[in-house]
Amino acid sequence: MWWGRSAGGRWTGDNARVIVDCAIYQNGCRTEGPEDLSDALDAARASGDAFLWIGMYEPTEQEFEHVSREFGLHKLAVEDALTAHQRPKLEVYDDSLFVVLKPVMYDEAADTVTTGELMLFIGDSFVVTVRHGEGAALAAVRRRLEHEPEVLRHGPTAVLYAVSDAVVDHYIEVAAELQADLEELEAEVFSPNPSDSKNTAARIYGFKRQVLEFRRATNPLLQPMERLAFGEVPFVHEHAQPFFRDVADHLTRASEYIDGLDRLLSDALAAHLAQMGVRQNDDVRKISAWAAMAAVPTMVAGIYGMNFEHMPELRQVWGYPVVVAVMVGICLGLHRMFKRRGWL
Amino acid sequence: MWWGRSAGGRWTGDNARVIVDCAIYQNGCRTEGPEDLSDALDAARASGDAFLWIGMYEPTEQEFEHVSREFGLHKLAVEDALTAHQRPKLEVYDDSLFVVLKPVMYDEAADTVTTGELMLFIGDSFVVTVRHGEGAALAAVRRRLEHEPEVLRHGPTAVLYAVSDAVVDHYIEVAAELQADLEELEAEVFSPNPSDSKNTAARIYGFKRQVLEFRRATNPLLQPMERLAFGEVPFVHEHAQPFFRDVADHLTRASEYIDGLDRLLSDALAAHLAQMGVRQNDDVRKISAWAAMAAVPTMVAGIYGMNFEHMPELRQVWGYPVVVAVMVGICLGLHRMFKRRGWL
Amino acid sequence: MWWGRSAGGRWTGDNARVIVDCAIYQNGCRTEGPEDLSDALDAARASGDAFLWIGMYEPTEQEFEHVSREFGLHKLAVEDALTAHQRPKLEVYDDSLFVVLKPVMYDEAADTVTTGELMLFIGDSFVVTVRHGEGAALAAVRRRLEHEPEVLRHGPTAVLYAVSDAVVDHYIEVAAELQADLEELEAEVFSPNPSDSKNTAARIYGFKRQVLEFRRATNPLLQPMERLAFGEVPFVHEHAQPFFRDVADHLTRASEYIDGLDRLLSDALAAHLAQMGVRQNDDVRKISAWAAMAAVPTMVAGIYGMNFEHMPELRQVWGYPVVVAVMVGICLGLHRMFKRRGWL
Amino acid sequence: MWWGRSAGGRWTGDNARVIVDCAIYQNGCRTEGPEDLSDALDAARASGDAFLWIGMYEPTEQEFEHVSREFGLHKLAVEDALTAHQRPKLEVYDDSLFVVLKPVMYDEAADTVTTGELMLFIGDSFVVTVRHGEGAALAAVRRRLEHEPEVLRHGPTAVLYAVSDAVVDHYIEVAAELQADLEELEAEVFSPNPSDSKNTAARIYGFKRQVLEFRRATNPLLQPMERLAFGEVPFVHEHAQPFFRDVADHLTRASEYIDGLDRLLSDALAAHLAQMGVRQNDDVRKISAWAAMAAVPTMVAGIYGMNFEHMPELRQVWGYPVVVAVMVGICLGLHRMFKRRGWL
Amino acid sequence: MWWGRSAGGRWTGDNARVIVDCAIYQNGCRTEGPEDLSDALDAARASGDAFLWIGMYEPTEQEFEHVSREFGLHKLAVEDALTAHQRPKLEVYDDSLFVVLKPVMYDEAADTVTTGELMLFIGDSFVVTVRHGEGAALAAVRRRLEHEPEVLRHGPTAVLYAVSDAVVDHYIEVAAELQADLEELEAEVFSPNPSDSKNTAARIYGFKRQVLEFRRATNPLLQPMERLAFGEVPFVHEHAQPFFRDVADHLTRASEYIDGLDRLLSDALAAHLAQMGVRQNDDVRKISAWAAMAAVPTMVAGIYGMNFEHMPELRQVWGYPVVVAVMVGICLGLHRMFKRRGWL
Fold first, then answer.
1. Of residues B191 and D333, more confidently modeled
2. pLDDT tens digits for E93-103?
3. Nearest CA of chain B to the CA of A106: how many Å?
4. Domain termination site, one of C224, C255, C275
5. How far is A245 from chain B (nearest CA, A)?
6. Whole-angstrom distance, CA of residue E97 vs CA of residue E108
7. Concatenated DSSP letters for B90-122?
8. Of B74, B208, B311, which is closest to A264 when you measure between CB atoms?
9. Each residue's pLDDT tens digit, B192-250
């Protein structure tokens, strides 16, 4: 057997690192097949209901050349498949369908979202999947499919559905993680402890960037999914339309979720600004109240510090204690008044 | 009779908790029917103008399996019906129509909005309703319909209309509750008493979240309602279009209402920010006025506290009273001036 | 004659309060007709070019029942006509056209906008107008039409045109009133007198609510008017399209006006916020300048209030006057400097 | 010759003030024609390739009556042509095309934008232009056209093109003037001199109003221009489509320009707010630094102003100079520290 | 050979400065051809698969006249090609296609974006390229194409594709540069050092202007690219559609990128405002803490500076040191408290 991770076939010598998995599926079951790629493809075509599925990881131009020639992939699609940083899209060529998906990953530790890339070439009897970056558990999708022969029986369409379903379902999970992060952030914004909010603006802004990154993965995919769900796309079974409709529906949900997060973040930033204003008002009032309580004794003391010869109070034995008592009394009175007015 | 809440029929053993109500309706009237589900469905189909309506509450996969097999429900719809957190939608399958509605509930005490889920499978002669969460008074709708045989006579379409009409009408009621809440909030924003506005930003933000939650229930429903109102949807009588148009119209009203609330909340947050600024300006002015009234006697007292040998005033008998009178005079003058300028 | 305000005909007994006016129009002229409603309608239908126009004010269900049965009005439209708080809309039924308009009124004293409701049922040879709330001068429209037989000759279409034209023209008048209010508000926002702006935020917010209320009346009407202007609507003459196009055009103008007001109000709120900032900066600077002018003499006096034995200045005859002169000099210098820098 | 400004023909007696210019054009050249309006129109029609062009200025209903009757203008278009404050639009009637344009004028001195109105009636062999307000140099367009017979040869279409081209080109010029104004405003917003920004918010707001006014002239014209550029419009040569496409393109450019100005103004207002914050922070820091430099000597002087009998320093000869030196030293140290931290 | 930069042919005398390069391409290869423009064009047309490519730089009307006459270019397109400041567009005329592109350039030193103009006339067997401003490396595109005869073989379409591909690819590069600039700006906004943020608002605003300028180049190009990618455009091979689809896809990516930058800049401005608020709160607290520490000794000193005869403490030897110790103790206590509360 020439395919598979550990195989040492003729042309896989250089590609061992690059070809992650490769198999022929007939009637939904993984089968043996000829060692050569062309022969395998011919065999798959001949049998009518079989197809070849090659999974690759960040191939170079040289490494991809043999595959693209064998399957007659379009030059532009091949270029896109080799370079990362594509938009999600669906492109129909004469011999194949080219789909770009952008799976997202959530880094728990750093609360950041990163995006990878997943390209699929769908032909009459082949699927080529190319992965860039981490976070797209294609192997898991393949394993799951190999345990569901009744699904895999539908050929390349089933692979496209299973992969896009897995990617979109992960969107919803990541969106839920972000929702949890937002709730933490809200607690920070409305925290009564001012030292919590030193970097709140920076955190909200950083969150906005994550959401924008997420959006770049999900929103451009809406239109391709609608085409798969409602339009006529070659190499895709018409019967699969309700399934793609389901994926499109989940995608719309993820997208609406993300839009909601974005709006709430803008509102949170505005609320943070308002909270800053409220806090400053509170601080200014509190500071002023204490200042008033210090200013009154200072003023009174200043008056009795005047050097007039004829100030009868200065001569009295009770002068000093009475003045001090008056100072304390005024301060207590002010304290009580400010307390009642909520300044302290 | 095998259906109904208290029935102990053959297959309802496990389902008693789950099947809330179940009946055959013929000519708009609840009738007796065979005990077995298949037989009941066959009977309903045979009679031509009868239909079977089963109402379920949060069924598990096992519990729903029998029903979905019997009515030939689509696998994807069944999956959606079993898991909550769906978007409102209308999906057409070969054998049935699948509608998801999201009723909203308003918690008076906490001023919060929560959403439930209501799924309907509409076939040629059956309706299956599945409810998740609280707040969807399906039983009330059924009771009302059973008293209006002339409506119920129109079959599954009538059930779909009655349910969606009830859900949408409740939207408008909840929107009115939120309107009342907004008015309270406005009073808080523009209250002259500053201690009222400590948490105003948090309240406005929380309100925004409620509105977003509400929006997620109403806005995605607009398009399915339009399809029912204008398009051709199988298993739905064409004559019902004006009725669904009416529902769509009420839904649009609720949706516009919610959008208006959302805009007003943004404006309220901006107005709150401006009010904070006005209040701070007022406070700073008031504090400064009092500070000025304390600073002047302090300064004057400081001058007469200087130890120069040749300060003729200090020798005068009238020196002290005159200086104190001047201090009081300046303070009164300042007080009057600040009062006139609106600083106090 | 059985119709008219003061008539005491057979079925108007209960309806006297409710039926504001009622007449048959033939060839554009008000004519006599049979006393009974059915007979009157039959007569109008028989004559071919005549129609019956009944005007009602807030009828109850019982009061409207006879009319709706006689003219074969659709149940849903009747429900809408009996309850206020509808959206503007145009609904086509088999036997009649149902139009909801929301006239707006402007209360000069309170600077508020309120909306009423105006429903029209248009049939082949009848018009039923139902009014809720104040502010829709239907009687004026009818009087004007009765003086323009060449218009009224076009039948129910002419009534629909005249009523919607009057409602939309009033929108433009109210928008102009609001424009004038906005100009007052602008003067307040940019007033140099700070005490003017205590409630500016509240007034802008309140204005926004008026605009939102207005918008709810105008915007949903755009689409029905377009249908009358461009589409095929039963019971409406095709020749009337340019006239409805004119109304639609005026409506668009009112709607753009309102949108412009809304944007300007948002800008005014932002400008108010900025003005608050400018004013606070000014106040802080002014207060600080005066504080500096008080702080310097206090500091100098403090120095000469120290009790050192060896302070030669204290012994000098000129000591006191020189120090006071220096204090006054510094204060004058500071005053001049602050004046020049615009702090005072 | 009965037409023209100075003509004293039969029916121009009253209209001399109103009819600015009037001529028959044949083969692109101004020609003589019969004195009576009907005869002139008949002559133009008879010759096949000739047309009559009447230019009017703010006609009253009476003044316009003769023209509208003669050319069979639609009643609604005539009403619109007589009242100013219309939206730009294109209306097709049986006998003529009615176009409303809103030329804008820029007042250099006041930096304000005002709009006029220009109505065109285009028929098979006539053009009636009606101008309201200043700023539409129709005479200049007519003169230019009279020097380009090869353009004028295309009849009424050429006039419509030339007029709309002139109006739209002027939009771009005015937009460039506003751009220059914006640059002045930006300099004001970011000026380091605070006294420059007292009225910045008011100026930005005023600018926003100008932009809104401009927008009301340009944006509603986009759709009519698209119809002329792509659709079938009666009385307009199909060959003229690329020319109207060019005008539509310029109009889109003006409109995008205006939208860009509007966005930048919002950003400028936000930046102004942020600048206010920066400035206030700077001021508060500067004021506090000076206050600290006054507070320290006051505090020290207060200590040595205490009346304790046993304060050995007070007895020393060097006591006073050392304390004053310490005061000065602390002040200089503070000054240096604040300078280094950017507070001064 | 009459064309080329150094050629001194018959009509290139005046045009040497203006015609940057000019050649006939046959079968993808640069060939010799007749010296005269008409003859060259005739030769290209005769050979069927050849085409003539003239590249010009800011031609004047006179300079362009010969070319436009020879190739039958449309008058309006010629006018647009001669004046800069056009919108990107695609215009179809009878004899040729006219495309305007706006390449952007990024000035590393000034962090500014400037736009140039690039016009292409595409005919059956000719391409005329006109460049305004710097920054469009047309020569590089031509050189690259001359090394790819298999692409150039597709004629004028290949030139249009190569040029628009180069322009759009450069958009993405410039967008990446702006992204790097944004990251610098973010560091400035959230810098803990306040002196960094004096001009942050001005820098964000300036950045917004760059983005707006960029947007004016990219967004209007989306629609023309879609037409090339999906529609039927004369003089463009249908087979080239996937290639233009690729360009349109890259353009959409650039456009989404720019939109993302714009949103982030608005958020950065809001975050800057919030940071200003946080910083002011911090400053006010810090200043107040120090003021409190100065006010307490001043008040205490004032009390013992009073001139009462009966103040027993004044007589004690330990009076002075104890009071000073108390002052220091209170100050240290306050310092500690403020430190713990995060005010210092």
1. D333
2. 888 899 999 99
3. 21
4. C275
5. 9
6. 35
7. EEE-SS-EEEEE--EEEETTTTEEEE-EEEEEE
8. B208
9. 876 667 789 999 999 999 999 999 999 999 999 999 998 788 888 888 899 999 999 99
How far, in Å, CA of B135 to CA of B132, rounded?
9
In chain E, which residue's Cα lies nearest the Cα of D243? E76
Q: Do E135 and E92 share a structural domain?
A: yes
Give the pLDDT confidence of C35-68 residue by residue, as tens digits.
Answer: 777 888 888 888 878 899 999 998 988 889 988 8
Distance separating alpha carbons of residues E161 and E145, to the nearest angstrom: 11
CATH number of the CATH domain containing D257: 3.30.460.20
CATH of the domain at B303: 1.20.58.340
Mean pLDDT of E298-317: 88
Choose among A276, A285, B293, B284: nearest CA to C282: B284
Which residues of chain E make contact with D274, given a CB cutoff of 8 A? 200-201, 269, 272-273, 276
Domain that holds residue E62: 3-275
Residues of chain C found within 8 Å of residue D217, distances taken between Cβ atoms: none
User: Which candidate in B320, B328, B343 is best for mutational testing of the A interface (most A CBs within 10 A)?
Assistant: B320
Q: Which of D226, D257, D263, D306 to mutate to test the interface with E (most CBs of E within 10 A)?
A: D306
Question: In 3D, which of C131, C112, C120 has the Cα closest to residue C235?
Answer: C120
Of D257, D275, D293, the domain-final residue = D275
Residue C19 and residue C58 in one domain: yes
Number of domains in chain C: 2
Same domain, A232 and A254: yes
Give average pLDDT by consecutive 10-residue segment, chain A, 344 residues: 36 59 88 77 83 90 88 90 87 90 88 90 92 78 90 90 94 92 92 78 93 93 93 85 92 94 94 89 88 88 88 87 92 93 84
A329 in the same domain as A211: no
pLDDT at position A1 is: 31
Q: How would you class E278 by CB atoms within 10 Å of its CB: exposed for 0-12, middle for 13-18, buried for 19 or more?
A: buried
Distance of CA B18 to the CA centre of its chain: 27
* Residue D130 and residue D217 share a domain: yes
**Chain E hits for D306, Cβ within 8 Å:** 301, 304-305, 320, 323
Assess contact for A277 and B111: CB atoms under 8 A.
no
Count of other CB atoms within 10 angstroms of residue B136? 25
Burial A201-235 (b: 16+ CB within 10 A, else e): bbbbbbbbbbbbbbbbbbbbbeebbbbbbeeebeb
Q: Which two tokens mark E288?
A: 């107040």
Check whether residue E74 and residue E193 sit in a common domain: yes
The residue in chain C having the minimum alpha-carbon distance to the alpha carbon of residue B283 is C280
Do residues A270 and B208 lie in contact, with contact meaning Cβ atoms separated by under 8 Å? Answer: no
Q: Which tokens go with B281?
A: 């300006």
Chain E: give the shortest CA distance to residue A302, in Å. 6
- Tell me what the mean pLDDT of segment C322-343 comes to: 92
Chain A residues whose beta carbon lies within 8 Å of the beta carbon of residue B205 = 186, 189-190, 267-268, 271
Task: Give yes or no for D322 touching C (CB within 8 A).
Answer: no
Q: Which residues of D touch E287 (CB under 8 A)?
A: 284-285, 288, 292
- pLDDT interval class at B5 (50, 70, 90): very low
Same domain, D140 and D289: no
Touching C: D residues 235-274, CB under 8 Å: 266, 269-270, 272-273
Question: Per the structure block, which two tokens stand in for B275?
Answer: 């009010």
Neighboring chains of A (3 or more beta-carbon pairs < 8 A): B, E
Contact B344, B332 (CB under 8 A): no
DSSP character at residue C106 = E
- Chain C touched by D195 (CB under 8 Å): yes
Per-residue tokens: D64: 């316009």
A104 & A29 share domain = yes
Cross-chain Cβ contact C320/B306 below 8 Å:
yes
